[in-house]
Amino acid sequence: MWKRLLFIRGTELVALALLASIPLAVDNSYVLGLLTLLAIYGILLIGLDVTVGYLGQVNLAQAAFLGLGAYAAGLSVSLLGFGIFGALAVSLLVGLVLGGLLAFPALRLEGPQFALATLSFSALSVTVLNEWESLTGGAQGLHVTRPDLFGFDLKAQGFYWLCLILLALVWMAMRNLLSSQWGRAFEALRDSPIATDAMGVGTFRHKVAGFALGSGLGGLAGGLYAFNFEYLQPQTYVYDLMVILLLGVVLGGRKSLWGAFVGASLIALLPNLLSNWLMFEVISALGLLVALAAGVRGLMKKTTKPFQAIAPIIAMGLLVGGGFLVENTENWRKAIFALMLFAVVVGLPEGLMGFASRFLAQLFRIDPPALPAPAELNTVLAAKAANGEALLELRDLKRYFGGVKAVDGVSMTVRAGQVHGLIGPNGSGKSTAVNVISGLYAPTAGEILLHGRALPQGSLFKVARVGVSRTFQNLQLFGELTALDNVMVALKGVYRSPLPLVLLGFARGEEKRAQAESLALLELVDLKDQARTRAKDLTYGAQRFLEIARALARKPDLLILDEPAAGLAHPDVNNLVEIIKRIRQRGITIVLIEHHMDVVSELCDAVTVLDGGQVIAEGTPDEVKRDPKVIEAYLGVVSEAEAPDAIPSPA
Ligand SMILES: Nc1ncnc2c1ncn2[C@@H]1O[C@H](COP(=O)(O)OP(=O)(O)OP(=O)(O)O)[C@@H](O)[C@H]1O
């Protein structure tokens, strides 16, 4: 672990020292200008990566936040007489506040609608900057004065160091944040907003916070940008820059600080890249080599489809070849960006850093940090009183979809400590009933009580927070996260540090505790050894068990399992039965929707049978199996000979 930590921190420190010392060794104002831009774009892209990489949204507003931050800083110096830090704080704040405000409506939208909302915001911002001439100077531009720093006139070199220090601080704070519960929550809601809410992690809150933070960094970068160029024009922050910024994040590698850094270097170098033919050819040829290496490697290891391997090679080949055919590469800039973006999106979805880090990890044999020992299960899931009192009560519950009465007046009582089966033929309303209980749907009518108190209605998040946890019939895992992180996202009662402490890196203790507790839950479902496997790479059976461990991380009073055996092979069904028995031993009450009658018979203390959205029978598994109404619902016939074990189980 120390080796890894030293390697990572060491590399960061060496890179910082190198960057800081270049101006001492090379006395060249042009190089200094490039380095300053690199630091500014670094901050900008780290911010953009929060929305694009972590939240998984196409954000076209970051260029606008750069512009708004720049004007805010410039104006707070000229109009309000602020010093450099005051002005930079204003640009950060402008990004945070406007980003948060934009996020409220925009994040209720998905995919292309979200992208369009951010695009509209950009267009609006540029128009305002352009038209509000009395304040911004409009198209004529705005001259900005760089304030001095505590009485020292900040020359180009001093200003570069200031930018570099701010980049280092942003880097540290974001590393702390993104490796904490916040970063996991950002990623979780990218993969499954429904499950994020159902695990008691507020989707909306985290989306707004992530977007505001990313935009805040955009604003801060804008402030530095203003003091770097000392002249601003609204047209700087439009279409071209948006595309270049996206290219930077995607090419560098999403979800990576180093990726943002590599992307920023690319953006800072782009003008030179296009105006200097030789450099353009060298970089394009390097790109072609990377595309060839990645493609051949992927094909040999069978991890890449032929199109994925060949298309980037063709795109980069076109760049190299095209360079010989066109007179002025600058005239082709948009086509060049488009080809680059295409090659990266298809060939290197993890970006250059994602690609490089795999090689580096192999080269230096960097082991991931060791995990702590699992916590005592007793401390994670304290045994609950299985006293048979009414825990969950449904009273005349109804849920209609238009004319379809999916749940039509269901009343039932689930007793503490019991496994309560909810069975019925396909379409009888079982899933709808648990979707209403867990808050995915609001009921049309009726009451739901937990511990005798009304359960919140129509909010997965609120229901999860009062002690009801669930799994899903169609798996809703956070596919990109490891098994361990899936459980850690949902873990209740561990993350207490306020945001400032997390940013400063003081939340590591609780991270260790969260790991230990989550490992105990993975051990309970026999997945401890696969803690580091990404959820999407687990076998189907393991994925089902992981959902159970994740639901347990809420430390619930009531656990709803929606067809956990669906699609499982026979040995896995046996494992599932063992796992559910272990959970029952902790005193956790379970509602089990299940088609496998043998599973129901073995596990359930009580069973409610639904048909056509209504309760047709209740009792022990043996009682309901013999009930003629139940047999008729399943088989459509009532025959003495077919009872008592006539209810079919899926193969
Ligand atoms: N979102 C929805 N919109 C419209 N109708 C729905 C919706 N969800 C469920 N239904 C309908 O409600 C009825 C009950 O469906 P539900 O999925 O709750 O049954 P189920 O008992 O869970 O079935 P299965 O065992 O096949 O999962 C069905 O007729 C279904 O088509």
Name some characteristics of this structure.
single chain, alpha/beta, Rossmann fold, 3 domains, six-stranded mixed β-sheet, binds adenosine-5'-triphosphate, ATP binding, ATP-binding, transmembrane helix
Give a written overview of the molecule:
- The chain is α/β, with parallel strands linked by helices.
- It folds into 3 domains: 33-237, no CATH class; 258-370, no CATH class; 384-482 and 539-635, P-loop containing nucleotide triphosphate hydrolases (Rossmann fold), CATH 3.40.50.300.
- 59% of the residues lie in helices and 10% in strands.
- The chain is built from 27 helices and 12 strands.
- The strands form 3 sheets. A 6-stranded mixed sheet has the order 8-9-10-5-11-12, sandwiched between helices. It has a 4-stranded antiparallel sheet with strand order 4-3-6-7, with helices on one face.
- A hairpin with a 2-residue loop joins strand 3 (390-401) and strand 4.
- Residues 638-644 have low confidence and may be disordered.
- Bound molecules: adenosine-5'-triphosphate.
- Residues 401, 404, 406, 424, 426-432 line the site of adenosine-5'-triphosphate (ATP).
- Adenosine-5'-triphosphate is lined by residues 401, 404, 406, 424, 426-432.
Strand count, sense and closure of the main sheet?
6 strands, mixed
Give the count of structural domains. Answer: 3
Q: What percentage of the residues does DSSP assign to strands (E)? A: 5-15%
Order of strands across the main sheet: 8-9-10-5-11-12
Determine the fraction of residues in helical runs and give it as a percent range: 55-70%
Q: Give the CA-CA distance, first to last residue.
A: 47 Å
Number of helices: 27
Main location: membrane
Domain ABC transporter: 392-637
GO molecular function, one term: branched-chain amino acid transmembrane transporter activity
Protein name: ABC transporter
